[in-house]
Amino acid sequence: MVQNMTDAAMAARSNAYAPYSGFLVGAALKGESGIIYTGCNVENASYSMGICAERNAVFQAVAAGERRFRTLAIAGGRNDEEAKLVPCVPCGACLQVLSEFCGPDFPILLADGVHKLGEFLPHQFILD
Ligand code: THU
Question: Could you tell me if 91 and 55 are in contact, meaning their C-beta atoms sit under 8 angstroms apart?
């Protein structure tokens, strides 16, 4: 299971469009249905218009009708070796988006093992 998810994140990473940073990221998000949704980072000449791999994967899943998730794997780096060995922690924006659908115990698989969403984002913004 772990290897499947890592492989899916690495495969998604191969489609990353990152000509400005050179940092390629892939994410694989498994829904409760068992379907794996993937995303890569897509940069833009107008820098802030780019999107991270993780949010791309979440939006793909939600657009397909899935909102409950089992796990997320992320692979990021300037080359394949870095992506396999160095953990790529999701940015704050992606953590906030994940927290819309996933609780603090949601497992996030990085190059150094399994983490929890609550470890990276102990407090999310909540709109009361
Ligand atoms: N990036 C991601 O896709 N996910 C992360 O978790 C961190 C950063 C992307 C954004 C940008 O295209 C590139 O990596 C460098 O910041």
Answer: no
pLDDT bin (cut points 50, 70, 90) of residue 2 is confident
Q: Is 50 in the pocket of ligand 1 (CB under 6 A)?
A: yes
CA dist 89 and 127 (Å) reads 25
Closest residue CA from atom 10 of ligand 1: 52
Task: Decide if 69 contacts 29 (C-beta within 8 A).
Answer: yes
Helices (H) and strands (E) in the chain, counts: 5, 5
Distance CA 44, CA 17 (A): 9
Output Rg (C-alpha) for the chain, integer angstroms: 14
| Positions marked active-site | 54
